């Protein structure tokens, strides 16, 4: 497995409010204005899953496979031709300040790794920035 880890982001909200928002994927409705439409489109979601069309990858479905209250949310890509996992990790540093990082693990052969490494590294950082900028208090 190849692993890509985002930089640690600081979010000015409690881990509880962040977890409540992110652990229910139907809350993605709030993010529609933050997601670049040229990269991600055709978003559908419910509490446990999200399906999006990712340019140039195609249609992908992610499902929450584990929730650890106020600490972690684990997702897997159901429609990917290769195993892909995404972890959202939360650590409350102090009241109303939470540290967050994202991790993607993908089973990539050397050829695929060479092609996908740069887009995955950039993608995990962009996703971490989006997650850190969500208005969790609304």
Which radius of gyration do the C-alpha atoms yield? 15 Å
Helix count from the secondary structure assignment: 2
Q: How would a textbook summarize the main sheet?
A: 8 strands, antiparallel
CATH domain topology? Alpha-D-Glucose-1,6-Bisphosphate, Chain A, domain 4
The rough form would be described as globular
Derived from helix and strand composition plus strand pairing, the structural class reads alpha+beta
- Write down how many β-strands occur, each being a DSSP E stretch of 2 or more residues: 8
What is the element string, with H for helices and E for strands?
Answer: EEHEEEEEEH
What is the correct CATH architecture? 2-Layer Sandwich
Number of domains: 1
CATH homologous superfamily label: START domain
Round the mean pLDDT to the nearest integer and report it.
Answer: 89
Distance between the termini: 37 Å
Low-confidence stretches: none
Helix content: 10-25%
How large a portion of the residues is in β-strands, by DSSP E?
A: 35-45%
Report the top-level CATH class.
Alpha Beta
What does this structure look like?
The chain has 138 residues and is an alpha+beta fold. It is 22% helix and 41% strand. It has helices at residues 15-22, 110-132; strands spanning 2-5, 9-11, 40-45, 49-54, 58-68, 72-77, 84-94, 97-106. Strands 1, 2, 3, 4, 5, 6, 7 and 8 form an eight-stranded antiparallel sheet that branches. The longest helix has 23 residues, at 110-132. The mean pLDDT is 89.
Quick rundown:
The protein is α+β, with helices and mostly antiparallel strands and 138 residues long. The chain has 2 helices and 8 strands, in the order ββαββββββα.
